[in-house]
Amino acid sequence: MARKKIVAGNWKMNKSPSEAVALVNELKPLVANQEVDVVFCVPSIDIIPALEAAKGSNIEIGAQNLYFEESGAYTGEISATMLTDVGVKYVVIGHSERREYFAETDETVNKKVLKAIEHGITPIVCCGETLTQREQGITIDLIRQQIKIAYQNVSADQAKTTVIAYEPIWAIGTGKTATSDQAQEVCAAIRTCIREVYGAAVADEIRIQYGGSVNDSNAAELFAKGDIDGGLVGGASLKADFGKIVNYK
Length: 249
Ligand code: 13P
What we know:
By secondary structure, the protein is an alpha/beta fold. It is 41% helix and 16% strand. The protein is built from 12 helices and 8 strands. Strands 1-2-3-4-5-6-7-8 form an 8-stranded parallel β-barrel, surrounded by 4 helices. Helix 1 (17-27) links the parallel strand 1 and strand 2 (36-41). Helix 1 packs parallel to helix 2 (47-54). It is globular and about 45 Å long. Bound molecules: 1,3-dihydroxyacetonephosphate.
């Protein structure tokens, strides 16, 4: 089956609310491509103004994190209910920066994935290896482990609606993109892992993105690969170039 591509911008900790509105307004006409799902994953404080600015366009607004409890004494956190209340449809879960700087683990990633699904938010589930792990030759084993733990207690029907983002850590923000063959190899291995756990129908439907220094000159080659269904884009999602990535063909 033909999977619809999904290109998501991960703004990380960039853009104040007023800057977010300006960026959404600038990009709106540039990303108006109905053949691709377009998502902007913005800082929490930008969600509401970004949603307002994106109204009537094809842009969906996503969050970059949520907490796995319903509510309560969790200072600084944001719940799934808060996100759905304003119309958030996607959430990035387990980005390598959250694993590195905020002590997220495969287990907390799993709890967050389950919470997002419970509330009807599509998780963009991140996985990826360090350069050392790649050099040790353990990339595929490690990614399979990350995926298997992230999807514990997720049913087949739920899994097929989720998105996986393969982001080699050595390619993030470094300008050093994985080659399209390297990216394809791991995305194919992820799909095989999903096939083993959930069967062929889920594996055929689930969308797998590549992330790590995606830009307007490498997007077309990456997205042409059979198991790469779009991208999770950091730096290049903050400028007009993002329009060229969405219109990669
Ligand atoms: P860059 O595109 O800036 O390398 O970031 C990738 C990323 O981490 C997206 O989540």
